[in-house]
Amino acid sequence: MTLSFSPSITRRRFHRWTVLAALQALLLGASAQAQTFDFDSVSRLAQTRAAEPYRANSDKLPPELANITYDQLRDIRFKPAQSVWRAEQLPFEAQFFHLGLYQTEPVRIHEITPQGTVRHLPYRGADFDYGKNTFDPAPWGDLGHAGFRLHYPLNGTAYKDELIVFQGASYFRALGAGQQYGLSARGLAIDTVGGSGEEFPRFSEFWIQRPAAGATEVTVLALLESPRATGAYRFVVRPGQQTTTTVHARIYLRAGAGPVNTLGIAPLTSMFLSGENQPPVGDFRPEVHDSDGLMMVSGEGEWMWRPLQRPNAIAVSSFAMQNPRGFGLMQRDRSFASYEDVEARYERRPSAWIKPLGDWGAGRVELVQLPTPDETHDNIVAYWVPSALPAPGQPLEVAYEMAWQGDNQQRPPSSWVTQTRRGYGFTRLTPAEQLKQPQFVLDFTGPALEALPAGAPVRAVVTANANGRVIEALAYPNPATRTWRVSLRVERIDATQPVELRAYLQHINDTVSETWTHLLLPE
C-alpha cells in the first residue's frame, strides 16, 4: 500500500505531538509556564518511560524524502540566516539537519527560555535551501529534525564555526580551535560485544538552553530511549583551544525488557586503518587513522597506552580497574608528514579524553577493534563497563568531563610512547622465524626521562602472557631524537592465539614511563 501525505495526515501528526507534549507536562507535575524545566524534569520523564514497554517511532517520511539519494540530501542545506539566536546576536547559534536517507527518525528539539519555560523549535521548510531538489515541504507539517549543531566563534570573531553536532542515534562530536572532525562520542552503548546483538539507543528529544549575552558555555538536555534503557543527559559545552563537554547522565534500565550484557558508559567511536605499527599496502599515505591509541589511567595511578590496530577478526580487550581516573582515544601523532593527506588532515583530528567526576567504582575499560575495508568505516570503540548494574527503574548516575584536545593534550606525568613499530632491519632470520619471533621497536619521551643525567641506567621491563616468551628487551638512548628506544622480541607459543605484551622503563627502582600494552594478534 502506498501512503500519501495529505494535509489531514500532517494535522494528525501535529495533533499527536501536541498531545504528547501535554502529557509530558502532566508527567513533570506542572505546566511549562509554571515550572522551571531542568535536568530533573528530563530524569522524571526517563524514569516514567523506563516503566513502560518500548514504543518505536512510528512516523513515516514523505515519499520524496524516503527515496532521496545521497547527492539530493547533500543539496539540502540549512540557511545560516535562519539560525536560532542569530537575530539576538548571541554568542552561540543553532542550526538543524534535515531528515532523509540514513536519518529517518525525527528528533524533537526545544529551547529553554531564560524564564525556564520550554519553547518548541519546529521543522519549517523555509529554514532550508533545497538546491536542485523540487520538493514542496508545505504539506509535510512539523516533520521534526535529524539533529542539530551549535556554532561559536571558535577560531576568530569574524565567523561562527561548528562547535558540536548531535546527529544519529546518540552520537555527538565536538571541536576545539584549529581541529577538524574525527572521532565521535555516544550517549550510551549496549551490548557492543556479547548479548544478542548491539543495541543503539537514540536521543529522541533535546532541550537547548538559550545562552545569555556574553555566555562562554551552552547547556543541552537530552532524553535517551532504546528497547532496554532510557536516560536523562545534560551536556555543558565550553568552547576553547580544548573544548570540554561536561556530561551528567541518569540511566534507567527498562523493566521487563531483557538482560543487558554490556552497558558501555562514555563510549567513543573512531577509525584506524593503518599506522606505523601496521603500514599500509598500496597507499602513498604513511598512516590513516582518526586515533592511534587508547590511553588509560587506573585508580592506582598506572598510565597505560594500547596502540590501535586493524584486525582480521573482531578483537576485544578489557582492562579491569577500580575508580578509573581517565581514559580516551587519542590522536598523539600531530605531524602532517605522518599522513600526507591534504584533504583529510588527520593530524588535526581531535583526541577525546574522559575524566570521571566522582567515583565510578569497579569495572573495566573495554576496547573493541573491528576489521574494516577502508577509512570510511568506524572500527574502533572504547567505553567503561560498570561491574554492577542497577535494578530496572533505579538510576545509574554518572558524570564525566570530555575534553576534545588537539596539539596540547593529556599526557602521563612521567613519559610516554611516541611510536610503535614492528619488524626487523637486517636479520638472518627466515620469514617464518620472524613471524614466530616478532620484533617491536618503541620510542619513549617525557620529563621523567629528560631529567635523567647522561649515562643513567634505564632498563626495559617487558612481560608477556602465557602464550608468549620474551626473548630480548633492550633500552638505549636515541641520539637522533633525544628520546629512549626499546627493542624487544617475543616468541609466540600458539600462533592461533593472541599474545598480551607489557613494557615500561625503569630507572633503578623508579618507573619512569607509562606502560605500553600491546595485543599481538593471531596470525
Keywords:
523 residues, mainly beta, Beta-galactosidase, Chain A, domain 5, Immunoglobulin-like, 15-stranded mixed beta sheet, ten-stranded antiparallel beta sheet, 6 helices, disordered N terminus
Number of extended strands: 33
Our estimate of the beta-strand percent is 35-45%
Give the low-pLDDT segments.
1-23, 25-33
Question: How would you sum up the global shape?
Answer: globular
Instruction: Specify the structural class.
Output: mainly beta
Write down the CATH class of the domain at 1-169 and 202-257.
Mainly Beta
CATH architecture of the domain at 1-169 and 202-257: Distorted Sandwich
Tell me what you see in this structure.
- Among the domains are: 1-169 and 202-257, Beta-galactosidase, Chain A, domain 5 (Distorted Sandwich); 416-520, Immunoglobulins (Immunoglobulin-like, Sandwich).
- The chain is built from 6 helices and 33 strands.
- It has helices spanning 7-27, 39-50, 63-66, 70-74, 431-436, 447-450, and strands at 77-78, 93-97, 108-112, 118-120, 128-129, 147-152, 161-167, 171-174, 184-186, 188-190, 202-209, 218-226, 229-238, 243-253, 263-270, 272-274, 288-289, 293-297, 303-307, 315-322, 326-330, 351-356, 362-369, 380-386, 395-405, 416-422, 439-445, 458-464, 468-478, 483-492, 499-507, 510-511, 515-520.
- The strands form 5 sheets. It has a 15-stranded mixed β-sheet that branches.
- A hairpin with an 8-residue loop joins strand 6 (147-152) and strand 7.
- It is globular, with a radius of gyration of 25 Å.
